[in-house]
Amino acid sequence: MGSTKKPPASSKPTIQELDEVVIRFAGDSGDGMQLVGAQFTATAAAVGNDISTLPDFPAEIRAPAGTLAGVSGFQVRFSNHEIHTPGDVLNALVAMNPAALQANVKDLEPGGILVLNTDAFTTDELDRAGYHANPLLDGSLKRFRLVAIPMNKLNRDAVSQFKLSPREADRCRNFFALGLVYWLFERPLEPSLRWIRDRFSKNPAMVEANTRTLMAGYQHCESAKLMRVHYRVAKAEIPAGRYRKITGTEALALGLVTAGRLSGLPLVFACHPMTPASDVMQQMVEMKRHGVRMIQAEDELAALSMAIGASFGGTLGVTATSGPGMSLMSEGIGLAVMSELPCVVINIQRGGPSTGLPTRSEQADLFQALVGRHGEAPLPVLAPAHPSECFALALEAVRLATRYMTPVILLSDVYLANGAEPWKIPEVGELPDMEVVFAASGKGVFLPYRRDEHLARPWAAPGTPGLEHRIGGLETERETGHVSYDAENHEAMIRERADKIARIAEEIPPLQVHGADDADLLVLGWGSTYGAIFSAVKRCQAQGLSVACAHLRHLSPLPKNTGEILARHRRLLVPELNSGQLAWLIRAVFVRDLETLNKVQGKPFLISEVEAKIHAMLRA
Amino acid sequence: MSSGTQLPVLTADDFASDQEVRWCPGCGDFSILGTLKKVMAGAGVAREKFVFVSGIGCAGRFPYYLDTYGFHGIHGRAAAIATGLKIANPDLSVWVVMGDGDALASGASHLIHALRRNVDIKILLINNEVHGLTKGQSSPTSRPGTRTRSHPEGTFETPLRPLSVALAAEATFVARSIDVDVEHLGQVLTRAAQHKGAALVEIYQNCKIFNDGVFDYATDRAVKADNVVYLEHGRPLLFGKDRNQGIRLTGLDPEVVTLGGGIPMDDLLIHDERVESIALPFLLSRFVWPDFPECLGVLRAVERASFERLLLEDIAQLQQSAPLPLDKLLAGDESWVVV
User: Fold this and answer.
1) Residue A4's pLDDT is what?
2) Do A238 and B89 touch (CB under 8 A)?
3) Higher-confidence position of A60 and B205
4) Domain boundary residue among A481, A507, A533?
5) Shortest Cα–Cα distance, B237 to chain A (Å)
6) What's the pLDDT tens digit per position in B88-144?
7) Is residue A186 within 8 Å of residue A231, measured between CB atoms?
8) Are B334 and A268 inside 8 Å of each other by CB?
9) Contact A468 B68 (CB under 8 A)
10) What CATH number corresponds to the domain at position A321?
11) What is the CATH number of the domain that holds A167?
């Protein structure tokens, strides 16, 4: 017969090495996609890949099943090299139903792997997703490597022996899909098996069922020979040390608790539930076992007022909110500025104005943080650049608040809060000095507004004999803190409060440039756009373009060398996920020309978007 | 021999600050301030443990006039600020002073939540039925027909009854007194100070400038005995110049009756400040002159664990015997080593 040889039936599929993969899990918001995404991430981190994630979920807890509005997604990029974003284009997509396919297929590269749950492609579901023809049959998916699997059936078969209700059985389906993807990317099952055992320790049937279906998904791929190849992404070359996977929210909570430990201050965390800041609250609930005094306040007015009261009482008051909650706090932040009390206000920025896009990311609260109060009320504003940096900046927020006796605003956003990456755990000895000194009794007349070398007033905790004093929101006389309506005193106090904040610039780290000091173009960013900007600039540098980038962590005050750095570059580009707020500030403060790149879609920048703008500027 | 800390003997003067008191001449706040200082002196609490928190309005100035720790906050938020403070340091004796506008307009939400949580703070709700410091607009307690700068033809809104609000908010201590009746006010404030939990004391206060005489029916020596009833635990609700009038309950309906002529003392409603249900104190909080004599004294005083105690016990239970070393805390449950 012919000379063509079929491979023997028992032959193992070949393994192909890849540098990195971007995969997205997508399904109905009740399909458990966030969970499998988080599991896949944890496993990738544990095998030593660099990782970056982008969860994306609707504001509704359960939008109508099967509709585009209800699609929930979780994107993971994992690699054998250092990465800074969750990736622009998908190499693989898992879609649990037609709506998930419809909403996500445009992001999948041609030739990408498309894993579909064929059982969900019924006439009803296709209708709900807006398909007029079944994409499984009409050839429209030919450009992808299709892995079509009847997951409902295979999952139910896998768990049939455990006497679960049909509903309970179907809830295990996400683990079937996860098992399948684990095979595809040659991942170990053990981390997820361990998680299942811990998570369902009180429900042995669910431990068994989820374990069984995870393994069934894995084995199905292997035995059904759906794929001739599977893929391997080797571990990344990253600096030696102990690592853990961490999200921005986890890093923030851990940073606050660590700051409490280092400063010796008990932490009072007062918060009113507000998407997406409620996740911070949830983390702080977990931190109660480390001594955090968590109060669920009746609203954001109360949350901040409680934090201020706690700080007056000699502990550290912290609150977190988003969107409209931040607007409600404006009044209280002014009180903290006026009474010169330390507290930390965390804003997980979401799309605005008003209720806006509660679960989507935006950088549109910079103006509000800088100047969104009546009267002149300057305060430090910080913004982490990537998820794990939330730890260091939480420490910095507490350090500045207590050293300078001021409220501090920390601007995170949805993307930073939910994004995960590996984090090199710092040595305790490397952590900053956070010592707090309270005013002590018995040194003559106590002057609550006598300033120290940082222009900070003393912090005197109620209960200390001899330091009885009154503070508040009325203008205070210098030194004594008595109420004063004196014209010159008011102007002097306005200046003192402003000076105190401005002087922080003397001791914060200088702005650093990645790339040549005198590159033609400097790309200046702040907050969560760091990954996209840094990656795009690195690519452009590799292509020989004269471009560098710098990223601001301190937005108020700006690092002392900001003007000097900007002056060294002929051109300046400021990309932001707003309509140009940092750009406005830079123009105003440094009176210079610049270009902007703005995106206000509730989504982060793609690397390619920043890259294209750099190209357009330097190649024009 | 007692091992307790020796407290210096304090007098009212020890609580006077060096600040000039700037209320209008004849303001009811003067006598409240004076009475308060006496109560504090006798409370057995060290001066540095007292903290006064206020919001905005004439009442907001109280902290400045007391030589204790004080925080003059913003409109309505005093109860929330005090909650944070009490959580920070439960050893403090935290007092909140608010006017009716502060407590029931801007701060209504914070007030009811502090009461339902039973934060161990003492709230003085100084009620003059008008926004004074903003120069005489209506407040949520202004009675219908009151002519104010915001309602020159007379208000037409239904007022809130502070004690009814407090009871509906599950307050554990609810009482009322009057600015000029300093003896009674002192007794009520002393009871409030002794209460473990949130205490709300409504104090009728005369605003000489913007709502003068609104409480004359309850302060004028010639008529007050017929217009107020002093509550005493376990005693019948008896009042009147001749002590011959009382309150009788028929079903859920109270009525004013005159003793004698077939109505014995035994028919009268007996006050019980300790009863768990709020039905009786709520009924008393609805007595409004001229249909009924208004109640003065303690309407409700029941025991319930305070917020800060529950919160700190909850944390103590969750905390391990020794705090987790910082390196272990940072490493979390799952970490790995890259070499």
Assistant:
1) 42
2) no
3) B205
4) A507
5) 38
6) 999 999 999 999 999 999 999 999 999 999 999 999 999 999 999 999 999 999 999
7) yes
8) no
9) yes
10) 3.40.50.970
11) 3.40.920.10
Taking CA atoms, A135 is separated from A139, A142, B95, in Å, by: 7, 9, 69
- Do the chains contact at B319 and A464, CB–CB below 8 Å? no
Torsion angle of C-alpha atoms A120, A122, A125, A128, degrees rounded to 10: 160
Return the minimum-mean-pLDDT range out of A161-165, A462-466, A562-566, B299-303: A161-165
Measured distance CA(A149)–CA(A146) in Å, rounded: 9
**Which residue in B87, B319, B339 is closest to A295 by CB distance?**
B87
What distance in Å separates residue B303's CA from the closest CA in chain A? Answer: 22
For residue A365, the tally of other CB atoms under 10 A from its CB is: 25
Cβ-nearest to B77 among A244, A301, A467: A301
Q: Do A241 and B337 touch (CB under 8 A)?
A: yes
Give how far A20 is from chain B: nearest CA, Å: 19
A170-223 pLDDT tens trace: 999 999 999 999 999 999 999 999 999 999 999 999 999 999 999 999 999 888
Q: Which chain B residues touch A298 with a CB distance below 8 Å?
A: 80, 109-110, 113
CATH domain B12-214+305-317 topology: Rossmann fold (3.40.50)
| CATH assignment of the domain containing A548 | 3.40.50.920
Query: Residues B202-250: pLDDT tens digits?
Result: 999 999 999 999 999 999 999 999 999 999 999 999 999 999 999 999 9
User: How far is the C-alpha of B91 from the C-alpha of B45, rounded, in Å?
Assistant: 10
Identify whether A192 is part of a domain: yes
What is the structure's pLDDT at A6?
47
pLDDT score recorded for residue B2: 46
Q: Tokens at residue A584, please?
A: 């406005």
DSSP B116: H
CA distance B21 to chain A (A): 12
Assess: ipTM above 0.85: yes
pLDDT digits (tens, 9 = 90+) for A229-253: 889 999 998 899 999 999 999 999 9
Percent of chain A scoring above 70 in pLDDT: 98
Q: Do B49 and A292 touch (CB under 8 A)?
A: no
Looking at the structure, tell me whether residues A157 and A205 fall in a common domain.
Answer: yes
Burial of B261 (0-12, 13-18, 19+ CB in 10 A): exposed
The β-bridge partners of A344 are A318, A408
Residues of A within 8 A of B68 (CB-CB) are 468
At A5 the pLDDT is 46
Residue type, B273: E
Total CB pairs under 8 A between chain A and B: 208
Domain boundary among A415, A430, A445: A430
| Shared domain check, A533 and A492 | no
